[in-house]
Design brief:
mainly alpha; 434 Repressor (Amino-terminal Domain)
Length: 80
Amino acid sequence: MTVNDAVVKRTIELLKEKNISQYRLEQLSGIQHGHMQWIMSGKSKTVTLSTVLRLANGFGMTVTEFLGGDLFLFENLEVE
């Protein structure tokens, strides 16, 4: 799984957990709709740390909390 895939999976997981829409997350995080669509569709191959920070902030958590869990373990990711 790529880092981008992991970010998308974690975002979907948190949207369900926190019961908020993608649109609401866009508002809370300051990420433009088009950019969020690009990420969530898998078309973006390079999610930046800045974007991850914005996502975490939109969810009301630290980046460490966002990146927690097995999804982001090095051995589970395809790192180029």
